[in-house]
Please model this.
Amino acid sequence: MKEMNADASGPTPEFVQLLTASQSAMYAFIVSLLGGVNDAHDVLQEANMKLCRKCSEYDPNQPFLRWAYAFARFEVMACRKRSQRSRLVLDDALLETFADEVEESSDDADRRLKVLETCMERMTPPQRELIAARYGRGEAVQDIASRLSRSENAMAALFYRLRKLLADCVQSVLGNEVRA
Amino acid sequence: MSKKSFEHLCHAVLEGTADELELEQFRVQLRAEAAQRRAYADQAQMHALLTWQQGRAAIPARTFLSPMDVPPKLKILTFRSRMASPLLQAALAASVALMVGLAFWQFADHGRKPDSMAVPKGVSVDIIASEGSPYQVGQRVVLQKLRIDTGSLRFRISSGAVVDVEGPVVLEFVNPMRLRLLLGNITIDVGSEAKGFVLDTASALLMDIGTRFGASVGNDGSTDVLVLDGEVEVYRAGEPPTQKSRLASLYEGEAARMPNREAKIQRLQAAALNGDRLAIRGLNAPDSAVITGVTDNIKKANFYRCYTITPGGMGEGALASLAHRGHRKLCWRALPDQVFPVELEGADVIGTFQRQVVHQPLPDINLELSHPCAVYVLFDSRATPPEWLRNGFRDTGLRLRSGPWWPDLVETRNLKPDAKGELCVVHSVWRKDVPGAATVTLGAPTPEGNKYPYAMYGIAVKPL
Model:
C-alpha cells in the first residue's frame, strides 16, 4: 500500500488526483461543520497537509472521501479549540451527530460541483444574476437588497430558496445518474 | 418555530450575522429535528460550493508558493484541447500545487519567512470555468506559464482578479498581481480586491485601477486594450510606471492600440466583444462575419472612445453601450409587454457612445461591410429623423427601448419612469438593405449646429 501512495518525494500522482478531486467536497464539509466560510480555507489546508503526510496509510480499496473527511473533522475540532472565544455554531455533540449524518450521505459529494454547473444553467437569468452578485462579485446580501429595493429579510429568504432549488436539482441529477 | 424562522436563522448563520440568541435557537432546531439538519446540510453545502465555484474560496497564496525551485519539466503547463490525457495534465498541475505546498509546510517554517526571502515560482489559481481545456471547474493549480491553442478558461488568481482567456493565448504568471501576455486575448476583472493589477505586453504596460478590461496581443506584437468598466492606465513597455512613462488613462468605453513600444498610442475605433461574457474578442478573431470595420471622422487629441461590435448579440438585454451607472449597463430591450422583434434577434450589435462625450460636431460613422446585409439604425423616437435617415432607410415600424438610463442627463430630462421605475428611451427601427460589400456612411443624428438633447442612435447589422 505504501508503495502505491507515496515515495521518497511525497504523495504519488494518483493520490494527488484523488485529493484534488475531493477539494470542493472537503471544503463544503468543513464549511457545514464550522457554520460558515470563515477559517474554512485554513482548516482545509491543514487537512490537506495531514492527508499528504499520512498518504501511505490510505487504503485505495476504501472510499477516499470518507477517509479525508475524518481528517477534516479532526481539523475542524482543532480549529474550534484554537478559537474558543469566537462564535461556535454547533456544540460538540451536535457537531458529532451532524458530521456522522453528512458522512453517511457523502458517496457522490465529489460530483456535486460538476452537477451544480448543470443546475446553474437551468436557473432563470435573474436567478443567475443574483448568484453572480452574491458569490461571484462578492456583494453583501444587504447591498443587493438595497440595490434591488427589497428588504434584507426578503432577500435572505430568496437566497435560501435559491440554494434549496440548487440542492434539490443537484440531488435529482445525481439520483438520476445512479438509477441510469 | 415557523419554517420562515428557520430560513432566517440558517441564512444568518451562513452569512455570519447570527447573534448568540439566534445561534442558540438554531442549535435547538438542529438538535430537535433531523429534517432541519438535512436542510442546513444542503444550505451549507450549496453556500460552500457556490463560494468555491465562483472562485471566492481562495487559499492564501503563501501556502502554495514555494521558495524552492519547481522542477523545470513542470514549470510550463501546456495543453491542447485534443490532448489525449487531460487527467494526467490535471494531476501534474495539482501535483505541483500540493507537493510544493507540502514541501513549503515541511521545510519553510510554515510560511513565516520574511517576504524578501520568498522567490515566487508560480501563482495559485482557481479554475472557475473551462471549455475545451483539460482543467476542471473547482481545480486549484499553480501556474507559471499557460499556453492554450483553442478553448477558453476562466480562473481566479489568489489576488482576487478574475481572468478570462481564449485560445490561442500564451500567458506568464509573474506574481498574483502581475501577468505577462505574450499572445492572444485576455479579459481581467480585478474587482475591488486587486486594484493596481498589472498586465505586461511587448508594447505596453497596463495598470488596472479598477475594474474590468480586455487586452489582445497580435502576432506582430501590437497590443489592443479596451476598458469595459473603470479605468486603466497605459504606460510605455519596459519602463517603470511613472507620470513620465504614462501614455494615457483610459476609461470605460475607451480603447487604444500600441503597435510597438516606441510607437505613439493610437485610438482604437472599434473592438469586438463576446457579449455573453463581456470579454474582448481581440486581434486574432474576426470582428464579425459581415462587419469588417467601424470608423468615424472624429479628429480630437486624447480621444479614445470606441465602438463595440458584438457578433450575433442582438436580443433582449444586448449591450447598447458601455456607458453605465453602478452595475447596470445600457441595454436593448423590447417594449413593455412585447416580445423582442424577431427580425432583429441575432443581428450584430454596434455599441455607440453618447453625444456628451463627443460635443460638437457629431460624427459620421462608416461601416465597412463584406457581405449582403440589412443595416438597422435604432433612432430616438422623440427626435426628428435627419434627412440621410429618411432618404436612405425605411422605418420598419418596429420599436425598441434602451435603458436603464439615469436621470441627470440632457437625454433623459423629460422622460418618465416606467412601471419598474426605470428610465428608458424608445427607438424607432430603420432599415437599409445593402446588396454586397460596401461602405455605408451614417450621418450625425442632427444637422451640424442644431441642438440634439436625445439619445445617440444604435446600430445593428444582419446578414441577408
Summary: The first helix of chain A runs from residue 2 to 5. The radius of gyration of chain A is 19 Å. Residues 2-107 of chain A form a domain with the Rna Polymerase Sigma Factor; Chain: A fold (CATH 1.10.1740).
